[in-house]
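Technical note accompanying the year-one report. For the benefit of new consortium partners, we illustrate the data format agreed upon in the data management plan: each record pairs a sequence with a structure-token string. No post-processing was applied to the example shown here.
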Amino acid sequence: MNILHLTLKKRWFDMIADGHKTEEYREMKPYWQKRLRMGRWYDAVSFRNGYSKDARKMLIECKGVFIGHGVQAWGAPKEEVYIIQLGAQIE
């Protein structure tokens, strides 16, 4: 399984865990372009709430990555971003 690993702040982690937030956003920067757009496909996204060794984790199905305008209430800026479309919680 090809997994994308991302770290989130508590607010966004909780919204995804509750099923309210169905997308995660990343800026249109060379770092994310290399990780998300170069012909790569991810089966799932592993989210971690912070950097502590006992941080909460969850594994969510990844339905795809595309470019567009996200929902600002979910943390997206006004400009275009990479949108990681999330599916069902696996773990």
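Partners are asked to follow this layout when depositing records. Residues 44 and 69 are 22 Å apart (CA to CA).
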